[in-house]
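Moderator note: this is an archived Q&A kept for reference. The question asked for a predicted structure of one protein chain; the sequence and the answer are reproduced below.
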Amino acid sequence: MPGPAQPNIEPNKDRTARAQKSTGGVAALKAQRTPPADLNEREAMRAYYLTVRRDSEALAAPLAAEDMVVQTMPDVSPTKWHLAHTSWFFETFLLKPHAKSYSPLNEQYDLLFNSYYQQVGPQWLRPHRGFLSRPTVAEVMDYRAYVDGAMLELMEEAGAALWQKLAVLITLGLNHEQQHQELICTDIKHVLAQNPLSPALYTPPAESTSAPALSWSEFGGGIYEIGRDMDPAGFSFDNEGPRHEILLRPFRLASRPVTNGEFRAFVEDGGYERAPLWLSDGWNAVSEGGWQAPAYWRRADDGSWREFTLHGEVPLDENAPVTHISLYEAAAYAEWAGARLPLEAELEIAARGLPLEGNFLMPQRDGGAAPIIHPQAASAAGDGPQQLFGDVWEWTASSYSAYPGYRAPSGAIGEYNGKFMCNQMVLRGGSCATPHGHMRATYRNFFPAAARWQFSGLRLASDV
């Protein structure tokens, strides 16, 4: 019998033809990228736009329509919603203000796909995104094609002065979409993990090679500069700056993230049962949530540990970095190990000048290899800390707050980062679900301390 019908996620010629028939804060953002130097940049931007948009659809390609509409907890959004919201972003901040002849495909999408922009208008409740059976997956893909057609037309026809504004906002929109590509991976993993069939999207990768023994690198104390200059050197999010001075004491960083095998020792030593190891809120989370191990770990009948991945349920890889742990679990492990979590400034200083290479997300393109959306073991030990980029986001002991001199951009764009600077903790370095080319040494990710569904791990630090 034929398998389940797959959603048509490739915009066809008819959709493209229909599509072709078819704000505030710009000044503050303009300094974050190089102004167009010649007409070739417009073509480069067009190619960049199409690549990112197609990568999102490639991530959704292995899914059935039924997979793409499920919401398993308030923090998880259906894949369909991510695909629509990223299109709504371009429609709202580029097409409506700047494309004079643009007419929205459906005015009601403003309510359904506005995430949290209060200055734009009301939003559908985040925990209720899974209630929406309509628009269908096919209709969302039509919406994407409609927006793409209008965006390509706007990029082609914009005059030189308007292009200066558009280039800034398009770059922001594409980086925003890459963030949602990571969320597509983490959210669908949570969805599939609830299914007793343990569905697999991809063939499991080979087990990691042995992780090198953990060692330490020392860094001197003193006054350091961190953060990103808001200059024309390239794109950055507003929360990465301004560049400023910070005083640090001498510190040490572990050579690699903590592995599953090392974290298993903590579990089997009763780490989840020993209140003195935990922050007060963390112990409450353990007690209320019944946590006994990282999210997606499963105890087999023979007592061994297994782990649910986007490649299905597999034996726990002892050499791979531990992932899907909260800040509370990271801090408890560090306490158990006689160490601490690093400050975000310490990780930035250690990563400065290193190539932005690591196990990042590479969406499948043109029949290439399927992505490995899972942490891999560190390679042979080298000089200095390894795996500072990719594999797992690393929790820090730093709360997410504004750098000295920070001011959010004006208008609705200013709601992107600034208004979340409360009750969140910073993570650094990217993960196996972070799109390749999206990361910087100054990049600041942030989540509540109890969050576990992201690819989050830890690296140990200590004072010298």
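Archived answer notes: The chain has two domains: 13-193, 216-463.
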